[in-house]
Prior knowledge:
Elements: H1 12-36, H2 49-59, E1 75-82, E2 88-94, E3 100-106, H3 110-117, E4 123-124, E5 128-130, E6 133-139, E7 144-151, E8 154-161, H4 165-174
Antiparallel strand pairs: 1-2, 2-3, 3-8, 4-6, 5-6, 6-7, 7-8
Amino acid sequence: MSQQSARPERSAAGLIGALIVLVGLVLAWVGLRAFTTPDPDSPVQTVDYARDVPLARKAADFDLLAPPRLPAGWVATSVRYHPAPGAHWHLGVLTDDRRYVGLEQGDQDVRSMVREYVDAAPRPGRPVTVRGQSWSTYTDTQGDLGLVRRQGRTTTLVVGHEVPVRTLSAYAASLR
Length: 176
């Protein structure tokens, strides 16, 4: 009488087949999750810059500029003022298509401010006129564009990452 084992025979081909089925199931699950799981909410934190503007203006020894309100869809993400010596005003915003625009003001000379906020080796471009005032332009190789002007002892820089000059000009024109 011969006895047969109740256990199926194991083979390399069977192991590879099972592994292929398992990997296929895992990939299908990951793919399904990628299509059915919503994107997480934006981790961007917004700030109420308008609350800080009056205090910064009182403390500043220069004509501190800020937009009275942001264009539709734009959000402020950072705001800070450092008093003298070395007084500096910063307002960072995101456009409606999530591009960064920064406003920097202080007593730095134009060259220093452009190197700090645009690039270490910026390329000058054509000047633009904003509300009757000439602003110099600078670009860099990473897609940054800066509009800058010096008035008295104060340098004002509006810089954007992959933001068109017309958008930066309109933002600069809104500054009061």
